[in-house]
Amino acid sequence: NAGVTQTPKFQVLKTGQSMTLQCAQDMNHNSMYWYRQDPGMGLRLIYYSASEGTTDKGEVPNGYNVSRLNKREFSLRLESAAPSQTSVYFCASGGDRVPYEQYFGPGTRLTVT
Amino acid sequence: AQSVAQPEDQVNVAEGNPLTVKCTYSVSGNPYLFWYVQYPNRGLQFLLKYITGDNLVKGSYGFEAEFNKSQTSFHLKKPSALVSDSALYFCAVRVGGGATNKLIFGTGTLLAVQP
Fold first, then answer.
1. Do A42 and B106 touch (CB under 8 A)?
2. Rounded distance, CA A62 to CA A47, Å?
3. Which pLDDT band, with edges at 50, 70 and 90, does B89 fall under?
């Protein structure tokens, strides 16, 4: 049982380059989430998907797009990377029903130069 | 506005001593509260939750948390700290409803346990 997996683990981009972060879960959860973690700011929600075929903006969606490919997979795309997007990105799933806890992937450390 | 506050950036405690990591929340309705732990270069791991019932909730690794409705607090506690407990701890509260269930996280508290 892999839980939530993310690829890649590390990535360095130049300003203006694009990339897609991949996330998959094998727990049959309806809901999936993308967060970014920055020092002193905790985790901030970028986008979430309450079910296959739906996506909604979170707290910090600017500069990102998402795709809920199927129930298992939820990808995050940076179309034109900026240094302000240097962060650690976490994917999570769960929260569908009581007790609403979410399960997290190992994270992707992204540096934009 | 719905929010979670962790007033301490860092908590230092000696091994064997009790520890407390503080969390207060502001949310409409009955709160669903969570504690997560993050070890260096790892994702977040679920520690414990409060949904309803007893105000003292027990979780993984000997941690417990006390829910106090009048003080809108959900402090994390452990009777005897271990060096291996050193990590970043996050408090979170559920917001939304129906098919939309999101968590709002505090800014995190770094726990440092000295041998």
1. yes
2. 10
3. very high
- Quote the mean pLDDT of chain A: 94
Note the pLDDT tens digit of each residue in A49-62.
Answer: 999 989 999 999 99
Residues of chain A with pLDDT under 50: none
Range with the lowest mean pLDDT among A94-103, B36-45, B55-64? A94-103
* Predicted pLDDT of residue B96: 74
Task: Chain A: give the shortest CA distance to residue B64, in Å.
Answer: 17
In B44-63, the residues whose Cβ lies within 8 Å of chain A are 44-46, 49, 51
Q: What is the pLDDT of residue A1?
A: 62
Q: How far apart are CA B3 and CA A95, in angstroms?
A: 18
Residue type, A56: D
Among B81, B83, B31, B39, which Cα is nearest to B57's? Answer: B31
SS3 A85: helix
**Which residue in A33, A42, A106 is closest to B43 by CB distance?**
A106
pLDDT band at B10 (very low <50, low <70, confident <90, very high): very high
Q: Which of B43, B102, B108 sits opposite A105 (nearest CB)?
A: B43
Q: Which of B34, B43, B102 sits opposite A48 (nearest CB)?
A: B102
Residue with tokens 């409060």, as numbered in its chain:
B50
Task: Give just the sign of the alpha carbon dihedral A55, A56, A59, A65.
Answer: positive
Residues with Cβ within 8 Å of residue B31, at least 6 apart in sequence: B25, B50, B72, B74, B93, B94
Closest to B76 (Cα-Cα) out of B115, B23, B4, B11: B23
